[in-house]
Design brief:
This protein is of the alpha/beta class. 38% of the residues lie in helices and 20% in strands. The chain has eight helices and seven strands, in the order H-H-E-H-E-H-E-H-E-E-H-H-E-H-E. It has a seven-stranded parallel beta sheet, sandwiched between helices. Helix 5 links the parallel strand 3 and strand 4. The longest helix has 18 residues. The relative contact order is 0.23. The model has no long low-confidence stretch (mean pLDDT 87).
Length: 189
């Protein structure tokens, strides 16, 4: 989180959301991971399997969320039914109530729709370089990308996994920088 915040320190996302970067009282958790896939289809298949596996291991009250940063791809995921079985699609803030009705299903949503909620594990999809251009390119697109990534990553309490695909440019620059600095652990796909 602190690494993302350093890309635009004047904006200080931590201040906006009341997050402090101090020493945690909890023991260190796993280092967040980053996985790159050749195609969107490969990425979605892996995320679906991983999210289901983690969800089965959780105790009552713990949740898994798959959050997409890309509005267009999120619409595709919902319409195509990639996350049909064992998932709840939360497509707006008005649908948050569905989460409690289906307490053993994983959530598919976007960070802004689940802002304020916390999940045991978050799978953050579409941390793609191409998304920066779609969000406006240049500093504006980069700032929007970092803000959305920050919001999505901050929903995770215990596990955070980031996913990108090569057909959309691979990892965006801030994600590559976090991998190079050791903040994110790359996984082979």
């Amino acid at each position: 989180m602190e690494e993302l915040n350093q890309h635009f320190p004047a904006d200080d996302f931590a201040e906006d959301w009341g997050i402090t970067f101090g020493k945690s009282q909890s023991p260190d958790g796993n280092i967040p991971t980053a996985s790159l896939f050749a195609t969107m289809q490969e990425m979605v298949q892996q995320v679906t399997q991983s999210a289901k596996r983690v969800n089965y291991q959780l105790t009552r009250g713990e949740r898994v969320a798959v959050l997409s940063l890309d509005h267009d791809r999120f619409d595709t995921y919902c319409r195509a039914g990639f996350f049909r079985d064992e998932f709840i699609n939360v497509c707006s803030r008005d649908e948050i109530g569905m989460i409690q009705r289906y307490n053993k299903r994983a959530i598919l949503s976007m960070p802004e729709y689940v802002a304020g909620l916390q999940f045991h594990t978050v799978f953050l999809l579409d941390v793609n370089a191409q998304l920066v251009t779609q969000l406006g390119g240049g500093p504006n697109g980069l700032q929007r990308f970092i803000s959305a990534s920050y919001l999505g990553a901050s929903r995770a309490m215990c596990g955070l996994n980031l996913y990108a695909d090569g057909s959309a440019g691979g990892f965006a620059e801030p994600i590559r920088a976090a991998i190079q600095s050791g903040v994110l652990r790359p996984l082979e796909s």
